[in-house]
Amino acid sequence: MSPLKIKKGSSKHSAYNLRPQFSDVQETHTLAVIVDNEPGVLARVIGLFSGRGYNIDSLTVAEVDHTGHTSRITIVTTGTPQVIEQIKAQLGRIVPVHEVHDLTVEGASVERELALLKVEGEGDKRVEALRLADIFRANAVDSTHSSFVFEITGAPEKIDAFAELMRPLGLVEMARTGVAAMSRGL
């Protein structure tokens, strides 16, 4: 039997090339986590992220079942596919966690967010702010002689686009709820 011939500089058959290939591409995922509604649960979930250096792009929490005392935590996070899998596995091991759903990979989902934007301006800037608000279907929920507070709901990208258009018109403050998300269909 002849020995295996490997071309010099070739790593195709190298013993050092046997490890699995990991992606370094950053992906954004939306996770829905059903937990017991009790003190300290949110701190434990957030502690998992901060303790390992993972970032949270958006976080919303609310009780969804009063009789069963469960809450839904919706987390938008960014990481490599391996990091996302690690986050899901570690969330599933926390005792008060009942379910972990990755809405990004489980199929089509609906994401919405609410934002309030305070825009100060007079004259043409004020008229333009009202015109853009109408196009984006934002509602003026407060008005003074020199400012508006607009309420807008929609996908996070829609809110980002509206905010960018309002910046040169006098955007001075913004508050966002964070993403609420749910899978579509049954």
UniProtKB/TrEMBL annotation:
Domain ACT: 30-105
KW Nucleus (keyword) present: no
Free-text function comment from the UniProt entry: Catalyzes the conversion of 2 pyruvate molecules into acetolactate in the first common step of the biosynthetic pathway of the branched-amino acids such as leucine, isoleucine, and valine.
Involved pathway(s): Amino-acid biosynthesis; L-valine biosynthesis; L-valine from pyruvate: step 1/4; Amino-acid biosynthesis; L-isoleucine biosynthesis; L-isoleucine from 2-oxobutanoate: step 1/4
Pfam families: ACT_AHAS_ss, ALS_ss_C
Name of the protein described by the UniProt record: Acetolactate synthase small subunit
Keywords linked to the UniProt accession: Amino-acid biosynthesis, Branched-chain amino acid biosynthesis, Transferase
CC annotations in GO: cytosol
EC top class, as a word: transferase
MF term (GO), any: acetolactate synthase activity
UniProt similarity note: Belongs to the acetolactate synthase small subunit family.
EC number: 2.2.1.6
Reactions catalysed, as given in the entry: 2 pyruvate + H(+) = (2S)-2-acetolactate + CO2
Subunit structure, interactors included: Dimer of large and small chains.
Cited CDD domains: ACT_AHAS (cd04878)
InterPro entries found in the cross-reference section: Acetalactate_synth_ssu, Acetolactate_synth/TF_NikR_C, Acetolactate_synth_ssu_C, ACT-like_dom_sf, ACT_dom, AHAS_ACT, AHAS_small-like_ACT
UniProt GO BP: isoleucine biosynthetic process; L-valine biosynthetic process
